[in-house]
Design a protein that fits this description.
The chain contains six helices and eight strands. With about 220 residues, it is of the alpha+beta class. It has a single domain, classed as Lambda Exonuclease, Chain A. The strands form two sheets. It has a five-stranded mixed β-sheet. A hairpin with a 5-residue loop joins strand 2 and strand 3. Helix 2 crosses helix 3 and helix 3 crosses helix 4. The longest helix is centred in the first third of the chain and has 26 residues. It is globular.
Length: about 220
């Protein structure tokens, strides 16, 4: 298949910056504002989920799966990025190609590409981040995020994914005035095939605002 890229220009792109002695990922806007990344403000929520998972499976299993999960996630992300750019992925590891194959029924639903691997920021939420893909999905303009996993996920385990993609939807509208109709999570699972999750972005903005305010409370000196 061949993807059509519309190459929508995003005005006022933020740039990632570093902060001495901090693990926080930060971005500087064209106006000079410093905003945390969406993954940074969601880290406490993600940590709660990971701690519950670690308690279920034990430290040894959790450590091993976490190490492999990072490698798998990076490799899968790179392969999908190249696929969407209409490049061959034949040189990627066989497992990664198999995971991509599992996702293909969903990938075939992707239409015109607005942008890919693009930094977005919101002055309302004072947050920034890099979105995987903005494109049409089943005919609706969507935020599309790719994830990898060993097993199937329950919807209550991945609320941070929905909040993250809902942020991209808000930030994209703020930058371009183009409304996003839905957020789509496409997840490749090693043992159980692929999963598709579709949510309405506006339903998560209230929770995003609470988490953003909590971040400010924790980082005010």
């Amino acid at each position: 298949m061949n993807f059509n890229h519309l190459n929508i220009k995003i005005p006022q792109v933020a740039k990632q910056v570093t902060e001495d002695g901090s693990k926080r990922r930060l971005y500087r806007t064209p106006e000079g504002n410093i905003y945390p990344s969406i993954t940074t403000i969601l880290e406490p929520l993600k940590r709660e989920v990971l701690e519950a998972w670690r308690a279920r499976v034990g430290d040894d299993v959790a450590d091993e799966e976490s190490r492999w999960g990072k490698d798998r996630g990076s490799a899968l992300h790179l392969a999908l990025e190249e696929l969407i750019k209409n490049k061959s992925i034949k040189d990627h590891p066989m497992l990664i190609q198999m995971l991509v194959d599992d996702l293909m029924p969903f990938i075939h639903r992707i239409g015109n590409i607005h942008c890919q691997e693009t930094v977005l920021y919101s002055d309302y939420f004072k947050t920034a981040g890099r979105v995987d893909l903005i494109a049409y999905y089943n005919g609706k303009l969507s935020i599309i995020d790719f994830k990898g996993s060993k097993k199937s996920k329950r919807i209550e385990w991945i609320e941070d994914y929905f909040i993250q993609t809902s942020f991209y939807a808000y930030a994209y509208f703020e930058r371009t005035k183009k409304p996003i109709e839905q957020c789509v999570i496409l997840m490749a699972n090693e043992q159980t095939g692929a999963q598709e999750f579709i949510v309405e972005p506006w339903k998560w903005w209230g929770q995003l605002e609470k988490i953003r305010n909590k971040y400010d409370e924790n980082h005010t000196t």
